[in-house]
Amino acid sequence: MMQLQTLVSICVFSFLSSAVFTGGLIASDTRPASSNPLDAALQRVIKTPQSPFRLQVDCTDQKGIRSLDLFTGGIAIWNGRSQVTLPPGARSTLLETLLNHGFSNFAAHYGGNKHPIKTEAAARISCRIWAKVENLQKSSVQQTGGQQSTPLTRLATVLLDQAEQFTQNSITPNDLQDALDMLSAGQLAPQVLRLRFVDLPSRAMNKPGSILLVSGGQVSHRAYSPGHTIAEQVWKPLTNEQYLELLQGLQHAQPESLPGNLWSEDQLQFQVQVMAHKKAVLARPFVALDSSVQSDDQQRFNSLLTVLRKLDAR
User: Fold this and answer.
1) What are the distances in angstroms from CA 244 to CA 29, 176, 183, 241, 310?
2) Which of 245, 34, 95 minimizes the C-alpha distance to 86?
């Protein structure tokens, strides 16, 4: 009889242990559907790994300054410098953590001065969590000074600790060209490539310009004219064909070696970034630059310009 009671106790303990989630919280496998839209979306995404999802966490705690930028599929940028691939279980754990800590009920802002003096510097952000699940977004920010939110800091620390254990096999490029080479070789994921291109035609063209953005494996382009309202931003998945064509154009242009100023009849602003490495180029009708002198740098940039405008027109 004693052995039977012992066996029952062990079985009960094993069941409870299997249900316990990191941080001492119960997993949501049997959690009823939530009436909160964000929580309900998180529950759906947990069950469907390829559902649209992105999580950003930035916080300064006892371990220092740490950051995580997680994309759909488990690709993440750690501390802005390295690519980390999280296993499916780890991704689910992060989503469960958001649910179990009640992130959907957090305030948008904590701390800061209610009536800041204009001459004072802007309040510094010590902690931030931002999540985009399907078509829903939620952000909670902790500013220095004023009310401090222990739940926000605790949640950020737990999320960062959960992701940090997978950073041992991270990939860290040495510079921008190294990063582009790694993208071409498939060592880095398309999600880590970021690009911004502002194209303002000369006044003689009498037509609006545009802003092209690439981030997280998605592309957005919208009409833009200085002093006028910018059209609504709509993101679409960057197709494999678009990505490969853009990457080939970047490799040919070798942006890291381009000068910061180049010539163009139009007003152009270009910036490419892969994690911690970025390059910005401004092109316009500089008086000091002769358009008739087509240097190698100018030719490479003009070639990239063709690729960017083709992508922007789609």
Assistant:
1) 40, 17, 10, 5, 13
2) 95
Task: Please report, as a single letter, which amino acid is at residue 23.
Answer: G
How many structural domains are present in the chain? Answer: 2
**CATH number assigned to the domain comprising residue 245:** 3.30.1560.10
**SS3 of 204, please?**
helix
pLDDT in tens, the chain (314 residues): 434 344 334 333 333 333 333 333 334 455 566 679 999 999 999 888 778 899 999 999 888 999 999 998 899 999 999 999 999 889 999 999 999 999 999 999 998 766 555 545 455 889 999 999 988 999 999 998 778 899 999 999 999 999 999 999 999 999 999 999 999 999 999 999 999 999 998 776 677 889 999 999 999 999 888 777 677 788 999 999 999 999 999 999 999 999 999 999 899 999 999 999 999 999 998 877 666 666 899 999 999 999 999 998 87
> Residue 194 contacts by C-beta under 8 Å, 6 or more apart in sequence?
214, 215, 272, 273, 274, 278
Place of tokens 């931002």: 130
Same domain, 147 and 198: no
> Are 223 and 125 contained in the same domain?
no
- Say whether both 108 and 75 belong to one domain: yes
Asked if residues 44 and 134 have their Cβ atoms less than 8 Å apart, the reply is: yes
For residue 217, give the nearest of 78, 76, 91 by alpha carbon: 76
Reported pTM: 0.81
